[in-house]
Design a protein that fits this description.
Elements: E1 11-14, H1 30-35, H2 37-43, E2 47-50, E3 54-55, E4 67-71, H3 78-90, E5 94-99, H4 109-114, E6 128-129, E7 144-147, E8 152-155, H5 170-185, E9 190-193, H6 214-224, H7 226-229, E10 232-237, H8 242-249, E11 258-261, H9 263-266, H10 283-293, E12 303-305, H11 315-319, H12 325-337, E13 341-346, H13 367-378, H14 383-393, H15 396-399, H16 429-434, H17 439-451, H18 453-461, E14 463-466, E15 474-481, E16 484-491, E17 497-498, E18 506-509, E19 517-518, E20 523-527
Parallel strand pairs: 1-2, 1-13, 2-5, 5-9, 9-10, 10-11, 12-13
Antiparallel strand pairs: 3-4, 6-8, 7-8, 14-15, 15-16, 16-20, 17-19, 18-20
Helix pairs in contact: 12-17, 13-14
């Protein structure tokens, strides 16, 4: 059956700042990533999604781009990037750039021009207003910032240093497409598109996500950039109901390959405090959302299968009893990777990495966390509660250095890491490499199975059918193609159940032995033909 190439990809996200430092300044960089290509090849991933490495004042860790065509010196040179693209390709790994098209940095030359005067040709690239409307920035405070030179306000949904682009302006859109094409012509595979659901916004009407022009704009972006080369496109989306999601991914509409959707995580958020105060996790509620994404017209749906990224606290802390850390880490990966969609691994998932330890509020580096320490107190939390909320939820948790070994600097740097999460003995590449039962070696086996030609069509194309719905703490389903059936049965809890019948050859299992019981976080993946 003909299928788009991206349906055979398994993607690894790198947050470059925290992956591997090559020059001892405590900040991960591109030469560091190049040095780890053999590791990634052995892991088995087919593509790297690289969080932004473009020139940036780093107000939002690179999601504030000052020049779409150049690499920030802290990450290396433009030549280093070319070398990464080339060497990765040689290792069978494609590079996906993280394009932030909703806003630039205020240091971008477009904004520097636009903010000079009302008749500047770049003025229309951004969104202006004489008086602010009552709308808050995601990072706290008003979304309108005063610009003294023009005596009016520009719109920024994120930090004041991240002015939103005006997608109504055709010249602006063309300038962005040129930037995308610049990278496609260099041989990158495609893009992860930052907060892409916002580009149809109608600020005057208070509409941000899913605005009226969103889908026509995505179609245009597709046709003028990655659609030309058959490249991959992964759109970041925080909210999309089932039908909206299918609009993005319906191949006939030529919009996106897939959307990276957070509705599973958002469902646990508090009405008032949002993500900073989550309800207890319920496997059933989680499962209901994930299963819905597997249902409906599957010719239009292609899901993203992930637990973590650079914006989320680690899923192991959120959803599992850490007494069973390794079992849970293995189970969570295997429980979702056999659904219909593209599996994503965020750096360190393959080690079972957990949240960092931040002794003091001063240890947090992220603008969102720093601002929210105060905002949460303004909303009524005590200092201790606000610190606890940061410990559980700050994005710094996902951004602590990758653990290459358990020594000082974690094998990440010879210098002082820009952010530190404290020690975590036992969970590093060098330690897990040696242990045949480590999370790392389980990930390798799981990825090899996912890519195995014998099962590829079954895992890619098989119909989804949920099993054991009566067990609210289980994730269990079948993928069915002709008379072949791949079955996944997982216990998403810290207590045992009677063991289900495993009637077929086991392809993947996360305990070393067999048992009469279905143990905490145990998972079986087996063939049932
Ligand atoms: C996305 C990014 C996040 C960033 C925000 C603004 O959500 O993943 O890290 O802060 O967009 O660009
Ligand atoms: Ca460095």
């Amino acid at each position: 059956m003909a299928h788009p190439a991206f349906q055979d990809d398994i993607i690894y996200q790198i947050f470059p700042r925290s992956y591997k430092d090559s020059n001892g300044d405590g900040i991960g960089d591109i030469p560091g990533i190049i040095s780890k290509l053999p590791y990634l090849k052995k892991l088995g991933v087919t593509a790297i999604w690289l969080s932004p490495v473009f020139l940036s004042p780093m107000e939002d860790m690179g999601y504030d781009i000052a020049d779409y065509r150049h690499i920030d010196p802290i990450f290396g040179t433009d030549e280093d990037m070319d070398e990464l693209i080339k060497k990765a390709k040689k290792a069978g790994i494609d590079i996906i750039m993280d394009m932030v098209l909703n806003h630039t940095s205020k240091e971008h030359k477009w904004f520097k021009e636009a903010s000079k005067s009302k008749d500047n040709p770049y003025r229309a690239f951004y969104i202006w207003r004489d008086e602010p409307t009552p709308i808050d920035s995601t990072f706290g405070g008003s979304a309108w910032e005063y610009n003294p030179a023009t005596k009016d306000y520009y719109f920024h949904l994120y930090a004041p240093g991240q002015p939103d682009l005006n997608w109504d302006c055709e010249a602006m859109r063309e300038a962005l497409y040129d930037a995308c094409n610049y990278w496609l012509d260099k041989g990158v595979y495609g893009f992860r598109l930052d907060v892409i659901e916002n580009i149809g916004k109608e600020v005057e009407q208070g509409i941000i996500q899913n605005g009226p022009h969103l889908h026509e704009r995505l179609h245009e972006l597709n046709r003028k950039t990655f659609g030309r080369t058959g490249g991959i496109s992964i759109g970041e989306c925080w909210c999309a109901d089932h039908d909206t999601r299918l609009l993005y991914t319906d191949p006939a509409r030529q919009e996106l390959s897939m959307v990276f959707l957070f509705n599973d995580w958002c469902t646990f958020h508090d009405k008032e405090f949002g993500k900073w105060k989550c309800r207890p996790f319920s496997p059933k509620e989680y499962r209901d959302i994930i299963y819905e994404r597997q249902s409906g017209d599957q010719s239009k749906a292609w899901d993203t299968l992930f637990w973590n990224n650079h914006d989320l606290p680690r899923a192991l802390n959120r959803y599992a009893n850490l007494e069973y850390r390794d079992q849970a880490a293995k189970m969570m990966f295997a429980a979702t990777m056999f659904l219909r969609g593209t599996p994503f691994i965020y750096q360190g998932d393959e080690l079972g990495m957990v949240n960092g330890h931040f002794a003091s509020v001063k240890d947090f580096q992220d603008i969102e966390a720093i601002n929210h320490y105060q905002i949460l107190q303004d909303k009524g939390m005590s200092k201790e509660e606000a610190k606890d909320a940061l410990d559980k939820t700050a994005r710094d948790n996902a951004r602590i250095p990758m653990r290459w070994n358990s020594q000082k600097g974690y094998g990440f740097t010879n210098g002082k890491p820009w952010v530190d999460g404290g020690k975590d003995p036992g969970h590093s590449v060098s330690e897990e490499e040696k242990d045949p039962n480590s999370v790392l070696n389980f990930y390798r086996a799981a990825i090899a199975l996912w890519k195995d030609k014998q099962y590829r069509d079954l895992i890619r194309d098989g119909a989804f059918s949920p099993d054991y719905l009566e067990h609210e703490e289980w994730i269990a389903y079948s993928r069915i193609l002709g008379n072949r059936k791949l079955r996944v049965i997982a216990n998403f809890s810290d207590h045992p159940y009677p063991k289900p019948i495993i009637d077929g050859p086991v392809l993947l299992h996360n305990y070393e032995d067999d048992n009469e019981e279905f143990r905490p976080y145990e998972i079986y993946v087996f063939l049932n033909e």
